[in-house]
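Page 37, top half.
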Amino acid sequence: PRPFFPLTLHPLLPPPPRARPPPRASPKVRRDHASETAEDYVEAIESIGRELGSCRVSDLARHMRVSHVTGVKTLERLVAGGLVRKAPYGPATLTAAGARMARASRGRHACVLSFLRAIGVPDDVAARDAEGLEHHASPATLAAMGRFVLGRARP
């Protein structure tokens, strides 16, 4: 019988091309993603607290559609970052910094959503798109969107 050689190791075939390592996210991309997550969570904590009177981990995990463990880990990071207060087995509450972040994020979201609706994007699509765009638009872009919505394309 002939010896078995996997195709990649056969002596008559050229070696396979070297795989490139996957690109690594830049530090800025990682920071932006962490900030986006923090903004989404503080907005959710504020919203759940307003709706239910308090925000427990299980409420937050359900709202964010993540596991309980992910909710706990994210809350730990938010507590360490000074955005949230949480006693063991108690509800999560926003610190003054967390409340400022939630308010700013909510304002950016409203601005982007209003702009998308003003240019004719259907409501369901605008709501979905605004959720991502609010975190990545620069202050100058948000200001221009606001001016457009108010009917002043230029100052």
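Page 37, bottom half:
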Amino acid sequence: KSFLARMIVGATLASMVIATAWATEAISIRNIQSLSFGSFVAGSGGSVTVSANGNRTGSGVVLVPSSQSRSAQFTVSGESGNTYTIQLPGNDFVSLTGPGEDMIVNNFTSTPSNAGGDIPQNGSQVLFVGGMLNVASGQVRGQYSGNFSVTVNYN
């Protein structure tokens, strides 16, 4: 049994905060690429992990080599020279829905890390996000999708 599990991110992905007293420009985040776990065979169940740098690994599942997996990509924009924090979804909060049982996404990671980033001279920085998809034994094949939010705030 093989199926395509893909997380499609949408408009609900980005959060924006207003400028603080010391920053004149509001910080914003925009999604430019969705997180995709690619195709795999569920078998007796396990997990598929896509790291923030886009590397995919599997545990207990068989990965289909030619499938398209990728980390999510965002652009964070704000006033240059400022630092910001990143808030990723918590565990057991994000699920992918499809023709079978919902699959949970956990262990979100980012580059730069959750500790945050620095807005460079040009006013924007790329943020990559990965995660781990939990796959049930005998998971029904098909396309699965869901949304998650990433929030950024000035330090």
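Margin note: The CA atoms of residues 35 and 72 lie 4 Å apart.
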